[in-house]
Amino acid sequence: RPCLIVNGRHDPRCPVEFVKDAVVEVQQSHSYRSLLLLVDEEAAHEITEGMWSETLLFLHQHLFPSSEHPSSSTGKEQERQMGVTDEAAALETRMQEGRDLEEEDHVQQERGEDRKSEDGKIRGEWQDLEEDMR
User: Fold this and answer.
1) Residue 112 gets which letter from DSSP?
2) What pLDDT, on the 0 to 100 scale, is given for residue 9?
3) Are the C-beta atoms of residues 34 and 4 closer than 8 Å to each other?
4) What is this structure's pTM?
5) How far is CA 48 from CA 6, 8, 18, 23, 84, in A?
6) Where do the record's region annotations for Disordered lie (predicted)?
7) Where are the domains of the chain?
8) How far apart are CA 112 and CA 93, in angstroms?
9) What 3-state class would DSSP assign to 104?
10) Inter-axis angle of helices 16-30 and 88-110, to 10 degrees?
């Protein structure tokens, strides 16, 4: 089933980092690939014109798939104008890389090894990626 989640980048009630984490978890644990996350770069806890436009386009595409609907290029242009971006795909890759590093750290700690002493740079790079996402 298609699912659309819209969120404001500056939403204090639903911080975008937590929403992104939830999206990635659902995609990975349930093999749920019909999940689209759109983030309005300027919004807080509100529904903007860009969010409405993207929601209506999403509904139209999924409820009436064989009917005429606005071209995807029009939709993409609208995303740029409204500051709404789809971050799920890039986020999924970055989160998986972080989980892989955490898993390696855990395995090495069980063996009595310490990745930080071996290569502290790797952990620092992952922390930098997490900060970039915020």
Assistant:
1) T
2) 94
3) no
4) 0.50
5) 10, 9, 20, 21, 10
6) 65-134
7) 1-86, 92-134
8) 29
9) helix
10) 80
Q: Are strands 3-8 and 84-86 parallel, antiparallel or unpaired?
A: unpaired
Which positions ≥6 away from 35 have C-beta within 8 Å?
A: 3, 5, 23, 26, 27, 88
In the chain, which residues have pLDDT < 50?
A: 71-82, 115-119, 121-122
**pLDDT value of residue 111:** 74
Q: Which residues contact 48 (CB under 8 A, 6 or more apart)?
A: 8, 40, 42, 82
CA atoms within 13 A on the CB side of 74: 6
Q: Are 85 and 38 in contact (CB under 8 A)?
A: yes
* Residue that the structure tokens 């590093």 belong to: 101
Residue 71 tokens read as 């071209």
How far is residue 67's CA from residue 37's CA, in Å, rounded to a whole number?
24
DSSP 37-100: EEEETT-SSS--HHHHHHHHHHHHHHHSTTS----HHHHHHHHHHHTEEE-HHHHHHHHHHHHH
Model pLDDT, residue 34: 77
